[in-house]
């Protein structure tokens, strides 16, 4: 009976796992109409030939497209699953990021982050952590900030920040919210007060955007 492509794929993967001369962990197997494509990485040319021979031994294989690359132990680890593992580790080591709330997907070096967090800075830290890993060619950050900011909370944070820094007066600052966007308006007495107000607004949970319409009144 003719094997289906999924059966062939299973058999080839099993043969690679059974072959002692091959480390199958970094080898991918795809099958289309009986044609087997081998991809991934091995540590030597000898191992590459052994993988090809193992695949050819499987009954039902019509042809082999061999795309395995030889990578020395000293080379950078750039397989997608290796990149994903390093990103997961970096996120786990970063205290600011709730690791259980972030999902990582890597496809041809491009990282997609999904999940939901309470704070904008957590989403931003996850994006920066992924971008620092070698082998990453780009990051799409789809992590949602689920908690919406409250204008009273933002205002309280601005007042507290002003009081911590030489008892500045935050009375002239007006705060409004639109979804996860915070809008600052009114007047402050110096440029540095604008910066303090912005940083305080960003520190509130749920904020994904701050619009600063503050003016400086000398």
TrEMBL record:
InterPro entries, alphabetized: BON_dom, Lipoprotein_DolP, Transpt-assoc_nodulatn_dom_bac
Keyword 4Fe-4S assigned: no
Keyword Cytoplasm: no
Keywords: Aminotransferase, Transferase
Pfam families reported in the protein's UniProt record: BON
Molecular function terms, GO-annotated: transaminase activity
Domain BON intervals: 4-72, 79-147, 150-218
Protein name: Ornithine aminotransferase
């Amino acid at each position: 009976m003719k094997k289906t492509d999924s059966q062939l794929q299973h058999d080839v993967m099993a043969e690679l796992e059974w072959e002692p001369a091959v480390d199958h962990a970094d080898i991918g197997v795809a099958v289309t109409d009986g044609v087997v494509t081998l991809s991934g990485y091995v540590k030597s040319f000898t191992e590459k030939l052994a993988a090809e021979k193992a695949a050819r031994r499987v009954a039902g294989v019509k042809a082999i497209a061999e795309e395995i690359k030889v990578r020395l132990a000293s080379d950078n680890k750039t397989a997608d699953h290796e990149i994903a593992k390093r990103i997961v580790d970096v996120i786990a080591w970063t205290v600011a990021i709730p690791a259980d709330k972030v999902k990582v997907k890597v496809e041809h070096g491009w990282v997609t982050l999904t999940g939901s967090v309470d704070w904008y800075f957590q989403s931003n830290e996850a994006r920066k952590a992924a971008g620092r890993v070698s082998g990453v060619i780009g990051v799409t950050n789809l992590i949602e900030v689920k908690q919406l900011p409250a204008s009273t909370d933002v205002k309280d944070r601005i007042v507290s920040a002003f009081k911590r820094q030489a008892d500045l007066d935050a009375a002239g600052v007006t705060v409004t919210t639109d979804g996860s966007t915070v809008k600052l308006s009114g007047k402050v007495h110096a440029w540095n007060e604008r910066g303090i107000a912005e940083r305080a607004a960003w520190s509130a949970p749920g904020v994904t955007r701050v619009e600063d319409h503050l003016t400086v009144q000398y």
